[in-house]
Amino acid sequence: MNKKFFFSVRVYYEDTDAGGVVYNANYVKFLERARTEWLRAHGIEQHGLLEKGFGFVVVSMQVDFKRSARLDDELLVSCDISDVRASSAVFHQDITDSDGNVYVRATTKIASVDLNRKRPTGIPPEIKEVFLSECD
To answer: Are 11 and 71 in contact, with CB atoms under 8 Å apart?
Structure first.
């Protein structure tokens, strides 16, 4: 069964433009943090993967901006996984507030990469098992 993961983000001054509105590229950073924390919550530590010469890279991202967040807002970034393949997976993410207002909807495809060879590689079986256990 698919379990949606949530990561809380507070909007800081550094995240905003001169008008106190979150700068568009920073939403992508919030999404990245949530995917990283999703991995960590499932026992997958990226520094350990890097030491083995393995990593995940974003190969595509669809981002729909729905409304603007502002300085001091507390946001929830959701994360769930679908469409696990041999060397890639797709994450669906929303950025909302506690009232359920949607700020961003995103779909991100990640691929597994052998960092030493700089080539795609299969998702390690123990990680793929986690991905599939959380997939629709």
So the answer is: yes
Torsion of CA 136, 112, 59, 118, to 10 degrees: -170
Can you give the residue range of the structural domain that contains 79? 5-134
Count of structural domains, the chain: 1
Model pTM greater than 0.90? yes
Who has greater pLDDT, 86 or 135? 86
The set of catalytic residues is 17
| Cβ burial, residue 61 (10 Å; 0-12/13-18/19+) | middle
CA–CA distance, 89 with 135 (Å, rounded to integer): 10
CATH number at residue 88: 3.10.129.10
Digit-coded pLDDT (tens) for 84-95:
999 999 999 999
